[in-house]
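User: Predict structure, ligand zinc ion.
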Amino acid sequence: MKPIYKYIGIIRIYLVDLLGGIAISKALSELSKQQYFSKETLHNIQEEKFQRLFNIAKSTTVFYKNANTYSELAILTKDMVRAQFDNFISNTYKRKLYTKATGGSTGKSLVYYSTALSRSYLWAGIILSWIVAGYEKGDKIAIIAGSALIDVKSSFKRKIFYKFLNVDTYSAYKLDELNMTLYIDKIVNSKVKIIYGYATVLDRLATFINTKHPATFPALKGIVSTAEILTEQMRQNIQAAFKVDVYNQYGCNEAGVSAFECEYHQMHLINTRSYFEVDMEGSLISTDLSNEGFIMIKYLTGDKVEMSEEVNCKCGRHYPIIKKVIGRINDFIIDLNKNIVHGSFFHFLFRNDNSIKQFQVQFDHNAINIFLNVNLSIHDKAYYNRYLDEVKKNFKFNEYNLYINSSFLTSSNAKHRHIINTSEPVL
Ligand SMILES: [Zn+2]
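Assistant: Predicted complex:
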């Protein structure tokens, strides 16, 4: 890279920091060095950060005021946070609290508060994964995702944030062939260096390229897949289409969990950002060490992971290695106009409504059926018709039905499925 581009790249990230009131540059340079620290040093940093956070929690939050030790604390569920929301806020934290909502892998999503420091580490963790894929500061990035990463009604500030970071966003909600063609052309013509997107969406684009719309991407350096399970088959499919390596990235932001694949495709968990454990069933329980404004300790993420026994990776990093993530699976909804929409549409539709505990969407060639499990002491049934109106605006079906507190369809592996195509056999 020519020096001038390098400087422009560095300036871009400083501008992002200035705009967002955050410190991605600082967090990124810290993590870039720290990832090669010894296992013991990393462990000590983690313990120190935890003790500090625990003391803040004890002295400044209602929820933890009588807490003694980590091991005595009960595992924190989303329901517990919802029930006592204000008690998790630190009364000495005076900076801005950012309202966020979780992705919701198996349950309804949770609204919580994040801080500038936590958001800085979140972005630094993502950028670390891009760096493995070949990213240099200033490179053009394509983010292909739902509203978790790209807000449909994105604010002006967010647009500028992406502009400074040199990110173009592509919605996962329009994946018909015409739009996929436009996406592919734009990725080629704007000389995108790194693509960052949902696993299922990348896989769908790849299949389209491999079977119907061959394309070459001379500027592309690598692809980072996120938010969903990336199977080996999907990885091969995406690599065959784009002719670059695919790296996996995994995060659970409310719990400070951020993991990225290294050059040897081992997934390293940044253990200085989170204080985590894995229980007998494989459930990941974690604490965000950089959120001092809204403190959730020993939080049940809803994801399952398998940690590797391996301690030394050829890449030289000493962050622990996740062997397997058993996380979120999303599906697409296909309507009568053959519009293909990523299932996360519904996560974002319902995410700010705390009266909705769980949802399921079933569709076939004729109808779309929305099942909601709700708390009727908050709103009456008629209130939920607003969601049906929203669905009508976005999908074409002959019938639209809403079922309140009816039972869901279950799958044989007992994992709750949010989106089910009932014209296909249920697995
Ligand atoms: Zn490694």
